[in-house]
Amino acid sequence: MALSKLSIVAWLTLPLASPKPKPQVSIPPLIPSIPGVTVPLASDVPPLPIAKVPTSALPGPPYTPSDIKPKKIGYFWTAAGDNEHADFLVSYSLDDDTFGTLLRIVDAPTSGNSPHHSAASHDGQLIWGGGLLSLLKTQDTGFYFNTSDPYEPTFYKTDRALLASIADEVRAKPDGGFFFTYMGSAIGTSPGRLIETDEDYNIIHEFPEDTDGLLNVLGEQFSPHGLSIDWANDILMTSDFVVPISILKPSTQIQHGNTTRLWKLSTRTIISTITIPDGGGIQDVKFIPGNPESAALATAVHLGQIWIIYPFRTDSSGNQGVAEVLYDLGPQAQDNIAIFSDTTQDGKFAYFTETIGNHIAALDISDLDNVKRLDDPNEDQPTVGLHYIKITPDQKHIVVTDYFLQTGDIGLINTPVDFRALYIDINPDGSLNFNRSIDFSKDFENRGGAKPHSSTIFDLSDSDNPIYF
Q1: How far apart are CA 193 and CA 114, in angstroms?
Q2: Buried/exposed 83-122: b ≥16 CB within 10 Å, e otherwise
Q3: Which residue, 152, 281, 305, 443, is most buried by CB atoms nearer than 10 A?
Q4: Nearest residue to 56 via CA among 113, 133, 14, 11
């Protein structure tokens, strides 16, 4: 007998119905680490068709740390290239005179998890990193690192949500804790969830939790990837990218989303669903800092376009939130698998990574009625398979990692890559100057290489006012 949507909603809310909900768990590897057993087992057991044998991670090889104390530090959430050694957080100096010096490597109790996005807590005491493919080995999804001493990071803890998996974007809460987007359900289907932790970094909510919100995400694909918050105006936005299970075989076609969700922050409820027609994956959404209408930029991957969303305008039917094309990046940007973004804190410049186009588009958005392109779309840039982009705290550089996703034989996405982290200068006019990079394949040959997906930047130049991005 088919279940009604209301029956499904009632079932989904059962885990959260107790007076003190605990919508999280942490489970050790199903096959524990055993000296003399785990190492050959990890190497010799044949791979399963999609799911992986749930072996423990092999410990990282020894390395020589540096005792320098740079003012600017880049932390990179990174996968071991062989998918057998532990995934890890690695820190490097970003100072001019010691750029690229390896500082510390901190192993996480996971392997083959495809480390994804990461960010620091508001006070810089912790860095969280998400595991994209945790469900393939029944591993935890969230990984926390103690950075109270920025020069000696240590592993802190792991967790996982009950209803969701496929961790993506993260935003720190000013009073402590995080919001995350989890793009899929516990088995990688739609709907995913918006996850919230408390100030002690315990998962306390998996939104939506109200009936109207659950009906909304059951009625139309909800696979949130992008996440942006306007704290002052009490709104939050998520963007729907792909149904995660559809990127894995035996699927033959990726199921893309065409929507963003506008949320009321104070109640954690969905206000409206905003559609970008034929968007083909709305991978990212970010509010423009200082915009008087709280406008946000969204990336439409199939179209190769940047859309602008006005959350307080209403459409012809009275629905809150209006989306319009802001800028077409051209044919080179179409069907680029992924387009991610970041915007300067003054709201003047915006940058977009075109993954298989091997290109960063730069726009001057200071006048939204007259957007100016600052790069040459036909220029060959020294980057391959780029994805994650983050503007540094001093707003003078961008950090880009040249790795998106390689699923191998089990999946449909295997983007080209050169496994570098680029440190790119922002010129006064907003254009870019490529001049420095860190080669992860060279530094981690003893782990089968390394796949750096995301970065977190600490700027300690002013010891009284450190900045964490």
Answers
A1: 19
A2: bbbbbbbbbbbbbeebbbbbbbbbbbbbbbbbbbbbbbbb
A3: 281
A4: 113
Contact between residue 312 and residue 287 where contact means Cβ atoms under 8 Å apart? no
**pLDDT tens digits, 220-231:** 999 999 999 999
Instruction: Provide the Cα torsion 50, 452, 169, 282; round to 10°.
Output: -70
272 contact partners, CB below 8 Å, separation of at least 6: 261, 262, 319, 320, 321
Find out whether 340 and 299 touch, Cβ atoms under 8 Å: yes
Termini Cα distance of the chain: 50
Compute the distance between CA of residue 262 and CA of residue 328 in angstroms, rounded to an integer.
23
* Furthest CA-CA distance within the chain: 68
What pLDDT, on the 0 to 100 scale, is given for residue 17?
43
Tell me the average confidence (pLDDT) per consecutive run of 10 residues in the chain, 469 residues long.
Answer: 49 46 56 44 42 78 96 98 96 98 97 95 98 84 98 97 96 98 95 98 98 97 98 98 94 96 98 98 98 98 98 96 98 96 98 98 98 97 97 98 93 95 98 97 94 98 96
Q: What are residue 417's phi and psi, to 5 degrees?
A: -165, 150
- What share of the chain has pLDDT > 70, as a percent? 88
Bridge partners for 259 per DSSP: 275
Instruction: Evaluate the omega torsion of the peptide bond into residue 292 and state whether it is cis, within 30 degrees of 0.
Output: no
Whether 136 and 187 have beta carbons less than 8 Å apart is answered as no
